[in-house]
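Quick review question:
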């Protein structure tokens, strides 16, 4: 099968031209070059994927340098693994690697790599659907499918390439679930048997918590992560996130509501974080902090997780006819991720939350500390109280300009 026309019709023209250019460079230097992996998988199922991974039978880093020079790009190299990233002037990235084999000293260890043929390189990959390549040199576009990946794409199977796959890299168990649910495929019977053996043998215990966190975040970044999370629990993998997490009715409802609300949500929001808050909704504060430290979460994630536990009571009681100042003060220190999470969790606060987002979030105070200084108020702790009171009055429509604000201050506060 030749994929030239598929590439031409299903990718931007600049990507097609880049692949042509890389192929010509390979032919000129005598280095066979291939585009591999997810780009090919999604090309064959009609999904757009612009993650371009190039594998060469030769020195991948040297070849990447030649391409970077040719297209005026920057290069970052990883000599240990024979890989490099070329970054185009517009920010588009292309990954390059030397075709290689990988040897794992023990389950979950980082591999020792050695140069190899393209077939060997494809054999080291996780699943057959990811083990296909397309030639860029020679017969441009020719599909290289040594392990029947195209067949498994057709029939909807997630299949490992060899029986030690989950032992070599136990994080592939999470990946199997992610692909299964993304494409509505099935984990092939023998593959699932080996996966369950890997779970029972505890191979994931040898994996760093950061790598497990990364796999979790990839699942949560899916368009609809709930089916994969439920499958992760079904296969006994959820305990490696935290042993206290369970997927029950309220959690399922929370995921569904986040997905529904996010369709019309126009704020810049990290949905991975929102879904993480939903997944950990059942954890008490002490367990949430424990998990945050265990998974080495970034401060943004840790802060939001802690805030979701601390602020939950006050937020949940926001209902009825509320003054603008009450709504503003309830949400002013809360990220857009937390607002969306609380809206999904508490239907009664949605009107107030949307009013905050759309109407009052960006209102600026009329009065500043400089104004108080100019009219003779001595600096001191009272400034904060005065400015907060004046701003609340502004939000509630009691005052509307600087003159009224200063009169409000004169009436309600005495100069010392």
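Suggested answer, residue by residue:
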């Amino acid at each position: 099968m030749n994929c030239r026309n598929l590439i031409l019709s299903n990718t931007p023209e600049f990507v097609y031209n880049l692949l042509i250019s890389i192929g010509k460079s390979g032919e000129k230097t005598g280095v066979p070059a291939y585009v591999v992996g997810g780009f090919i998988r999604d090309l064959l199922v009609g999904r757009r994927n612009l993650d371009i991974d190039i594998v060469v039978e030769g020195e991948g880093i040297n070849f990447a340098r030649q391409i970077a020079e040719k297209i005026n790009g920057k290069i970052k190299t990883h000599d240990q693994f024979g890989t490099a990233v070329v970054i185009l002037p517009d920010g588009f990235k292309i990954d390059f690697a030397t075709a290689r084999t990988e040897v794992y000293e023990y389950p979950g260890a980082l591999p020792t790599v050695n140069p190899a043929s393209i077939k060997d390189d494809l054999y080291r990959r996780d699943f057959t659907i990811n083990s296909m390549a397309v030639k860029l040199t020679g017969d441009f576009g020719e599909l290289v499918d040594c392990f029947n990946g195209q067949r498994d794409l057709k029939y909807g199977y997630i299949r490992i390439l060899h029986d030690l796959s989950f032992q070599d890299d136990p994080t592939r168990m999470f990946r199997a679930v992610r692909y299964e649910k993304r494409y509505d495929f099935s984990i092939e019977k023998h593959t699932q048997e080996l996966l369950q053996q890997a779970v029972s043998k505890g191979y994931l215990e040898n994996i760093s918590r950061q790598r497990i966190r990364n796999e979790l975040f990839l699942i949560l970044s899916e368009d609809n992560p709930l089916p994969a999370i439920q499958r992760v629990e079904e296969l006994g993998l959820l305990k490696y996130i935290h042993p206290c997490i369970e997927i029950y009715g309220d959690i399922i409802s929370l995921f569904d509501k986040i997905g529904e609300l996010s369709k019309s949500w126009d704020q810049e929001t990290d949905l991975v974080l929102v879904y993480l808050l939903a997944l950990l909704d059942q954890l008490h504060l002490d367990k949430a902090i424990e998990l945050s430290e265990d998974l080495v979460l970034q401060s943004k994630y840790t802060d939001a997780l802690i805030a979701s536990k601390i602020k939950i009571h006050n937020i949940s009681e926001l209902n009825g006819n509320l003054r603008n100042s009450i709504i503003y003060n309830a949400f002013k220190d809360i990220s857009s991720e937390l607002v969306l999470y609380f809206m999904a969790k508490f239907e009664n606060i949605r009107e107030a939350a949307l009013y905050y987002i759309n109407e009052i979030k960006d209102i600026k105070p009329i009065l500043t500390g400089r104004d108080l200084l100019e009219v003779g108020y001595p600096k001191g702790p009272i400034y904060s109280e005065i400015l907060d009171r004046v701003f609340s009055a502004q939000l509630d429509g009691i005052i509307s300009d600087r003159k009224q604000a200063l009169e409000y201050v004169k009436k309600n506060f005495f100069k010392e």
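Why it works: The chain has a mean pLDDT of 93. The CA atoms of residues 119 and 146 lie 7 Å apart.
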